[in-house]
Every structure is written in structure tokens, then in C-alpha cells.
Specification:
about 30% helix, Aminopeptidase i, Domain 2, 9-stranded mixed β-sheet, about 425 residues, Aminopeptidase, alpha/beta, 6-stranded antiparallel β-sheet, 20 strands
Length: about 425
Amino acid sequence: MRSLKDFNQDLIRFLDASPTPFHAVTSMSKQLDAAGFTEVKETDTWVLQPGQGYYVCRNGSSIIAWRQPAVDAAVNLGWRLIGAHTDSPCLKVKPTPELHRQGYFQLGVEVYGGVLLNPWFDRDLSLAGRVSYRTDAGRMASVLIDFETAIATLPSLAIHLDRDANASRAINAQTYLPVVMGQTDEKPDFRALLKQYLEEQGVEQVETVLDYELCFYDTQGAAMVGLKQEFLASARLDNLLSCFIGLQALLDGGEAATGQVLVCNDHEEVGSLSAAGAQGPMLSQWLERILPDVDQRNRSLSRSMLISADNAHGVHPNFSDKHDGNHGPLLNAGPVIKINANQRYASNSETSALFRHLAEQVEVPVQSFVVRTDMACGSTIGPITAAELGVKTLDIGVPQFGMHSIRELAGSRDAHGLYKVLQQFLQTDQV
């Protein structure tokens, strides 16, 4: 089991290397490769060996990784699944984004997910994602790109021109958010600029850029902050933090008779309804390939459990009235069991009890979160996956501040604590 310091250093490297879901899945794939896992393609016939590790990707933005159990073990002991999501709220470049106003080159953006918009202003922004192009030979290809350096910004309007800004400025997503890329005398062609960039990066035979999925991100890297380095500050903690924790638990969990699975889906922030999302068929289709026999598959699921890991709202010292007085999770006080009577979270008394039992075994404290009764509750992939598969489920998360901001904050000890509990979960025969 890795030390807290080593764990957090690896976490920071992962966060910085993963500005988009595509990059996150690539980063996870590299770690799986290094650990001896084998990638299998959805287009191929799978020949799987018990005891071996495998992974499969869809759309380049969702991934399932697992250790293959023997069929009898899968049926009689079930699966231990950890679920998370790879996407985060952000600003995505529109298909025809070019704007030329007052001599400035700007790109129009769409808001992806429930973005906290104010913190996006006055940041050093870069651009990353996937670009699809046609080669000189007339074939289609795709490549991941990351400009890495600051190439854009979103300047605030000076308070002198809006004296009521601190009291009542509302952000119009259409008119306030076009990102400033630079100054020019002519309206640029964004696809032509991407073609030039690809060629400068050594991508050969690019005839024309056909399309792209690109999002802006803050170039400020992840860092430990606080007088005693109590906090981890970064973009995309929701929910790359859980992806990393689940991956490390799988990699360091060792062999077990039960099936060990990590599934990280894209598109959770916009409802999960996609081919690569949790409300799509990816996980069920994977399970059908692993256990084609319907009776065996259903028996296996009845002995299985999913832990849906997605960050929780820590109680903010300036806004403590936004929490139920008995359910305000503190940073660095342990992972949080998320509970909702209306099934916005999938936890129940049995799955919560098992988590508490496992946490006690590794001496990790546990907290609970229930939203105020007079407030609406968010949700996760937990209820979606539970409904799709019929598998018992627990919703948990690391507490954080600033959820859906361009820069979020979590406790520097909580991720490591959850990692220890999830290792125990992957080994347990009690479900």
C-alpha cells in the first residue's frame, strides 16, 4: 500500500495529464499497461484467462478495467465493482466558433454540464481534446491534442463599467463567454489553425480537419495548499479524483477470488444517456460477453456490489447553513456515505453497513451526507447503474469545496483513505 505522500504525488501527475476525458482514459490505460493489464477491443473476439487483468475502452472517453475470475467464482462470489466518471463541467468549442470583433479573435463556446461560471473569468486557459481529420490518402483519422500553454483568456468586465457587479451580475452564457484568443485584422479559420497545429506537432499527411471535440481548461496545475498542506487544489477533482482512487485500488488490490472491476463512464455531468455513459449499454454489454449464460449472469449479479464514487459537498465554513446540521462532511475527516430517501443516491442500510465495516478494518473514519430536506438533491451514476444492472449499490465520495468550479478543493488525506477502503472492498467475500 502506497504512502500518503507518494499517493498524492501520483494523483497530481494524473490530474495534470488529464485535461479531458480522452486524456484521462489515455492516462489510465498507460498505468494499466504498465501493471500488466491487456487491452481488448470491442471489435475483437475475447479469449480471457482467469487471473489476468484486462481493459476495454469506448469512444476513447470511457473505460472498464478488470481482473478476470474463474467462471465458477464469478457466479458464486460475484463482482466487486467501483464506478466513477471521467467528465467534468467545462466550456466546449462550438462547431463554427470563429468571432472577429473589435480586432479580437474569439471562439464561441457551449457550456457542458452544470458549470460554476464566475471562476472561469481571468484565468490562463489552454485547449485540449480530440481532432478528426482526413489524410492525404483520403482516410479518416483522429488524434488527441493539448496545447498545454496558455493560449486564451476570458477577461472580466471592469467594475467601473458595471458598478452593481458584486451585487447582481448574472452571466449570459451566449454573450459573456466567447473566449479571447488574440488580436488579428481578419477573421481566422479555426480548422485551418488546427491543421497547422497538427503539422507543427508532427502529425503527418493532414489534408483537412473535419471535426473536433475540444474544451478549454485552466493551465494552473494541481497543488497542495494550506498552512500544513491540508488541501489539494485542482481542476476536475469531480470526478477524476474518484477515477484515480478506483484505479489505484484495482492496481494495488492484488488477486482475489471475486471479480474486481473499475468502470469509468463519460457524460455523467449531462445525464449519462449516451453509448459511453452509465445510462447506455457499455457495462451490460461487457458483462454479457464475460458471462454469456443468462442464468449465470443473473446469479452473479445477485452476489455483486457496486460502489459509485463521486465527490460529496463538504460543509463550507462561510455557508454552513446550506447543510443539514447533522450531515455536514468535513474535509480530511474521511469518505462520505451519500444517502437520499428519494433514491437520488443508491445507498441502503446494507451497503452502507458493509462500507462502515470495511473502513473500520483499515482504520479510516466515515462520514455521511444527506441534503437539507428543503433543497433539491443531485445524483450520480449509482442509481443509474443500479437500475440498469439490478446490482446492489452504495454511493460514496470524498468531501470537497467548489464543486463544478474551474478549480476545486479537497482534503489532502481523504483520497488516500478512500483508496484503503476500496482495496478492502475488492478483496471482501461479504456482500
